[in-house]
Amino acid sequence: MSLVNGLPAHILLVHFVVVLVPLTALALVACAIWPRAARRMGVVLPVLALVTLVSVPLTTQAGEWLEGHVAGNALVHRHAELGDGLLPWAGGLFLLSAAVWWATGRTAGSGSGASGTTRRSGVPVRVAAAVLSLAVAAGAVVDVYRIGDSGAKAAWQDGFAKTASGGGDDH
């Protein structure tokens, strides 16, 4: 994928990643911490994470095409390097989302008739899932920020004047 309506596809696809990664991270953490939220979201959680996972390589492939069609510099190269590191984070979001969804579905069947011992034995697993989800979610969001920051610097470096040119209305 190279161009969409005359614009580089990367410029359009990146908006999906910038929205979907933090949204998926937030949903994962909420579902890992609150099983009730996971039950309410149901299969939407892993489907959202799958869409996020698929959007990352589409965006990076479009970015590689764009990198080949712009004047290369250190900022563009750094942005491309950082972008290549997002896929493992997105994969982690997907795997954990699928695991939280699966585990919530398995425990939902036990209902209120489950013994206190069964519920207590699941607490360490839930705590571990919540901690791991928090770590992966934070890593993914921080990585998206770093990639976006480097992309903005690469795109806008020397691309604007620090003072108004006087041609527009700045009131």
Automatic annotation (TrEMBL):
Key word Lyase present: no
Transmembrane listed as a keyword: yes
InterPro entries membership: DUF2231_TM
Keywords: Membrane, Transmembrane, Transmembrane helix
Record-annotated DUF2231 domain positions: 6-161
Pfam family name, one: DUF2231
Superkingdom classification of source: Bacteria
Transmembrane segments: 12-34, 41-58, 86-103, 123-142
Any coiled-coil regions, as ranges: none
Protein name: DUF2231 domain-containing protein
Species of provenance: Streptomyces adustus
